[in-house]
Amino acid sequence: MASSDSPTRKRRLKRIAEGAEAGRAWLEVMFRSGLGSGSVLEGFSDLEKRMVDSQAAGLARKFRLLGELRNTSADWQDRFVEEAGLLYLLLDSFLRLDSFPEAMQQEIMRTVGITVDSRVLNALPIQEDLWDLVVQREFKEGRLVARRSWCYGRSSQRWVCVQHYRIVNQPFEPNLMLGQGYRMALTMYPGSAQTRAAVKSYERVELVPPLGGCFDDTAKEYADLLGRFPWAEQIAGSVCINGLVQEGDRWYAQDLEGTWFPVKADPLGIWRVVAYSGSKRVTLFGEWDGREFYASSVGTESGFVGL
Predict the structure, then answer these.
(1) Three-class secondary structure of residue 86 per DSSP
(2) Against a cut of 0.85, is the pTM above it?
């Protein structure tokens, strides 16, 4: 990307601001009209295209996901209003970017779709540690496949997220694998969240999965992250569980302190968790998004298993 004061960057910021103003005005009309207005709720694809034209891929993704929430469940309206409110906050925040501290400005710009200049990343301090990759998910992002890998630092005692993209049928680079330990040098992306990292170098080592805690530990970490970055979508966690129960089409796990929390995985994965829950000590590794704990792997006395 061009330097921060280049004409190219200024033109791009102007286009994004124009798109943000249009998106904010559209949301205001939607809020005034109410969710019962079908004509208002049909404009998401146009807004997504407008954001793409404005070179704001992050905003385009937000409008696409918001549109996909419609009629997804019996109580979709509650989730829709919450996400629409967060999107409005993001648009409004970008339009008054200079009023925020530098760390928050970095998060807002990256969330709307402005990537960090590689020269900026290369100038930041490097953190070296032994990292254990125990949470990983792949998903589609437009025409690309994204992989989100969460690693836990043995010395730093913290979770970091490494996210990579690839074209279909092409490998990830670097190709970090679930259930593998790494000696890595990382650079944390600038901003207030301090969860995402860029890999500078890595080599494989034996996996040493982190110990699991109680569910409240993960919930508190996520609440703290939201306080620093309101648009955070998830955080990794490890929770020791006693077992699972099914209620209707939902699953719930109980931690060692007796707290029940909703758990999600693909159909085969959830039954693997049920099978392993008979072990004396079971640790779930996954992502908590404020609503569900999406299980990615399981740790037992006999070893580590990806779901």
Answers:
(1) helix
(2) yes
